[in-house]
Amino acid sequence: MTEPFPGAVLDLLDAAGDRVVFEHLGRKVTGAALLADVRRITRGLRRHGVRPGDGVALLLGVSPEAFAAVVAAHTVGARVVGVRPGLTERQRAHLLTDVAHRVTDRPDGGADTPAPGSVLRLADLLSAADDGVRPRVTARPGDVARLIHTSGSTGLPKACAQTYAAMTAAWALRPDAWPPAVRELAARLDRFLVFGTLASQVMLEYGLLTLAAGGTLVTADPPAFPDAFVRLRATASVITVARLNRLVAAQREAPVDLGSLRALMVSGSPLGPARLREAAEVLGPVVFHGYGQTETGMISMATPADEPGSLGVPPVELEVRDAEGRPVPPGTDGELYVRTPSQSSGYWREPERTAEVFTPDGWVRTRDLGHLDGAGRLWLTGRTRDVVIVNANVYYTGPVERLLGTHPAVAEAYVTAVPDDSTGEAVHAFVVPAAGRTPALAELRALVSERLGEACAPARLTLIDEVPLTPAGKPDKRRLVQGS
């Protein structure tokens, strides 16, 4: 029987031995040293009474010791809750519901995050004696391994419950299960730049992939791009669309030597074909465009060789279905349903929301629209809930945003609904102008009216310097509306 997660991580660190696996603030940490930290923290957690199934919140950065704490918390079989920066007090309190212990590396012990339960300082846990014996993994396959929270852009974050069985089945630590796109990416992860917090689902996933590929994790916090790539000789990192756009602009204005850079994994929101082509022109063939959700993990990934706009061939079960839930033929848009080995089992203690998204036969409704072409490649076209209702007719914002993005005076476009006395709702376009250009509402209305119809044409236009982002790095349309 396969040992539950994180058994494979312990094996990787043991096999690494004297090889450097982590670089942080000038320190080089070997696999053996990191495994010793895992042993000490595991003993410390057990000494404080942490048992399988207990809720443990991690208020940690991206140091080697923080990584060891994540592995140790899973070794004892805890239900791990990551608390990322940028949350409101109300959101933090929501995340810490049902948590018995908090592990923190903050100097104040996480005093700004009041909650019941014990506070365990990482430094104190590291003071436990190291017996040199491989920690016994007491995680139980059916227990919830971690709660991965959504961005909270619609209110309080939803907690996606992922079991230890699901984490064990994930592809990151199993080279024999790597899809072709992941295998190509793994070959470029010699020095993977991590930042922010390992509470990030994406950051931890690619960090584990880096270790499995024989690479090294290097830290930069805050991540000043492109300086961090140059200073740390990083070969890869995760990047949001907004950060990628800023990196491209910085390279155009004042180029630096990015010869070490081999892979940028774009996540969080779609990357338009025009922006992707520009990034390839400036940075070279380094952009991997991933598509996934908090509920499912990775669904598909495009490599630099894929056609801009495509998300590659999904390596998981995926069906495109119509409004009645019936599969549709290739080339036909519909809602995407997926099944992945490591998907969540539902939303923590929210059965009604779970029933809306997770089907009894194991499929997850992504609430995204798209289609598969004749070659099996995935193309996204919108979201089922991202709509404007004009005269009682529903219009998806995705096609409007993409069409606006083709106008030569538009660099980026974001569409929301705005109340309208005549039609109920109308389209409000928020546009980042292209360099040296100023788009006019009349021109944009004419473009959309011709291609998509009058109802989809913007009734209002707001020019913005850049789109605000949620703490998860996604475009925050709520703040766009509030600021207009």
Automatic annotation (TrEMBL):
Domain AMP-binding enzyme C-terminal: 400-474
Domain of life: Bacteria
Gene3D superfamilies from the UniProt entry: 3.30.300.30, N-terminal domain of ligase-like
Disordered: annotated segments: 324-346
SUPFAM superfamilies listed in its UniProt record: Acetyl-CoA synthetase-like
Domain AMP-dependent synthetase/ligase: 17-348
Alphabetized Pfam families for the sequence: AMP-binding, AMP-binding_C
Gene Ontology MF annotations: acid-thiol ligase activity
Protein name per its UniProtKB record: AMP-dependent synthetase
Species whose genome carries this gene: Streptomyces fumanus
